[in-house]
Amino acid sequence: VEAANRWPLLTEEDEAAVLDVIRHGDLSTHTVIGSLEADYRRYFGVEHALAHCNGTAALLAAYFALELQPGDEVLVPSATFWASVLPLLWVGGIPVFCESETEQLGLDPEDVERRISPRTRAIMIVHLWGMPSRLEALLDIARRHDLKVIEDDSHAQGAKWRGQWCGT
């Protein structure tokens, strides 16, 4: 197997660093977590960054932050990773699946607008394969209809749409 096709090998230094965090006993407040969050804030030029154990947990936190009520609808892409939608179900929300557009692979803004109902509370934008969704059009729809926006940027860290970092 070619070296370029293999996962990087973990070193003893990597293992020691992980064990240090685990032995600390409180993963959320270990200094390495604070450093990671500070690095994200600096890199993306944002005021807040909160590390989670995985993207699913981060999305669950975002859905909780929206204070969705059972039966509230969130517009989601029909082509996405399951973790973009599962946390919505855990909080009692209803996913309304929207079509993806062919160029950027994200939500089709025209289909999103067609599927808005009186129960719609938010739009879940997922940037897949490192390709930013059409943020300008989707954010305009959200503004006009007073909808909240969640961006799942887990598959496009560092991607930009017209000069703006995805996820910010």
From TrEMBL:
Residues making up the signal peptide according to the UniProt record = none
- Protein name, as recorded: Aminotransferase class I/classII domain-containing protein
Q: Which Pfam families match?
A: DegT_DnrJ_EryC1
Organism this protein belongs to:
marine metagenome
Residues annotated as coiled-coil are none
Task: Give the SUPFAM superfamilies listed for this entry.
Answer: PLP-dependent transferases
Biological processes annotated in GO: polysaccharide biosynthetic process
GO MF terms listed in the record are:
pyridoxal phosphate binding; transaminase activity
